[in-house]
Design a protein that fits this description.
This protein is an alpha/beta fold. It has helices spanning 7-10, 13-27, 34-40, 72-83, 91-105, 117-129, 144-151, 170-176, 199-209, 228-231, 234-238, 267-276, 283-292, 296-319, 340-349, 372-387; strands spanning 59-60, 112-115, 135-138, 157-160, 183-187, 215-218, 243-248, 261-264, 323-324, 331-335, 352-353, 364-368. Mean pLDDT is 91; it is low at 1-31. The structure holds pyridoxal-5'-phosphate.
């Protein structure tokens, strides 16, 4: 169901009061600890403690989730929202999160569309722009939503080979772009490589391409990059370029199962996206987003645990002399020298889940950061798998 954001509603006193309430919620976060989150939902309270989340004893390092979330500030709001679950998500809650995102990014609320995970908004974008012409993208990127439009017969993807260092070859992409191009889709940092594009080069290329067609930059992992503000393409939107940026609460916020994502674009593009977005996000999602969006204490904690895991993995890879890409995300892409699907199978036997092969990158494995003991298990298992 589309969410029709109106200026009139934005200006009502009720909305102002709601926003004030949201800020109070967002800043009343208590100390962060994984134990707090677990204590809120003791495993004994559900019929099968492994109904959701990783199965018993499994180190789930294959899906780029972040087990440090949800933040206690989000969990509190989810509990509150669940108690109001008889009701459709209120317009006030939708506006509140929209307004918070707009404020933090220096855009107007009309430019923000909040959806059920960024997957929804990305699919909507692929459906809007796919019929105009090919989606030009790097050969390796998170292509699930572009493929959604392809599967509906609404788009085609023109995949451009990566550069020799496996970064996105922006010059090669730019050379393909014309006014007939439906969409340019970039992912920064990219998945599965984990690489960030050089900020100045990216922004200059995006500006030139956006004069010819719409450029989408999927920034799902941007908060985990070394300098999110410098790396983001959001400032190009207010400078008038035809750019859409998408973000998610699934990564640094650790809320992959809660499903909140959003896009930032011109108000005109946002209106088009809203008109084809398919769901009305659950009240629990909006509430969780409101609870933790500005929870800097949690975000710093989440970032530091991911960084700790990443350092452990890269130290192990260096010790083993294996090539890897310098990741600025919650996963690492490395070249084991073995078939990726064999590495996956051998890891599975040790109850460690890592990603299998992408396209023809048969010797490359992607491992996501999990809880530190799970990352430790991976680091211990890797030499055994490699030498088996
Ligand atoms: C680059 C990228 N974008 C978007 C998503 C979708 O995330 P979500 O739909 O959970 O927001 C993912 C999921 O892994 C991703 O890797």
């Amino acid at each position: 169901m589309a969410f029709d954001i109106s200026r009139r509603l934005m200006l009502t006193g009720a909305m102002g009061a709601s926003i004030a309430g949201a800020s109070a919620c967002a800043t009343s976060t208590s100390a962060v600890s994984a134990a707090t989150a677990e204590a809120a939902f003791p495993p004994s309270a559900v019929p099968d403690p492994y109904l959701l989340g990783p199965k018993e004893g499994v180190a789930l390092l294959s899906r780029n989730e972040n087990p440090y979330g949800p933040a206690p500030s989000a969990l509190k709001m989810i509990e509150y929202a669940a108690s109001k679950g008889a009701y459709y998500t209120s317009r006030e809650a939708m506006m509140m999160l929209t307004e918070m995102i707009a404020e933090k990014n220096g855009v107007a609320p009309e430019q923000v569309v909040v959806t059920t995970g960024s997957g929804e908004v990305l699919s909507a974008i692929a459906m809007i722009f796919g019929p105009k012409g090919p989606i030009v993208a790097p050969r390796l990127f998170w292509d699930t939503t572009a493929l959604y439009a392809v599967n509906l017969g609404m788009a085609s993807i023109d995949r451009v080979p990566l550069a020799a260092d496996m970064s996105i070859d922006l010059a090669a992409i730019e050379a393909k772009v014309t006014s007939e191009t439906g969409l340019v889709q970039l992912c920064n940092p990219n998945n599965p490589t984990g690489l960030v594009s050089d900020a100045a080069t990216l922004q200059a290329a995006v500006k030139r391409m956006a004069k010819k067609t719409t450029v989408l930059v999927d920034e799902a992992y941007i908060e985990l990059s070394d300098d999110p503000d410098a790396n983001s393409c959001v400032p190009l939107i207010n400078a008038g370029y035809d750019v859409i940026v998408t973000r998610t609460f699934s990564k640094i916020y650790g809320m992959a199962g809660i499903r909140v994502g959003y896009s930032i674009s011109s108000a005109e593009t946002a209106e088009k996206i809203r008109s084809v977005a398919m769901s009305w996000s659950p009240c629990t999602s909006f509430a969780a987003g409101i609870g933790c969006y500005n929870d800097e204490e949690f975000l710093n904690y989440s970032r530091s645990k991911i960084q700790e895991g990443r350092d452990m993995v890269t130290t192990t890879l260096e010790t083993l002399g294996l090539e890897y890409l310098p990741s600025q995300t919650n996963f690492v892409y490395f070249k084991s020298g073995l078939e990726a699907n064999d590495v996956q199978k051998a890891m599975n036997e040790k109850k460690i889940s890592v990603r299998g092969q992408y396209m023809d990158y048969n010797e490359w494995t992607r491992v996501s950061m999990g809880k530190i003991p799970d990352v430790e298990r991976f680091c211990k298992a890797l030499p055994e798998v490699i030498s088996a």
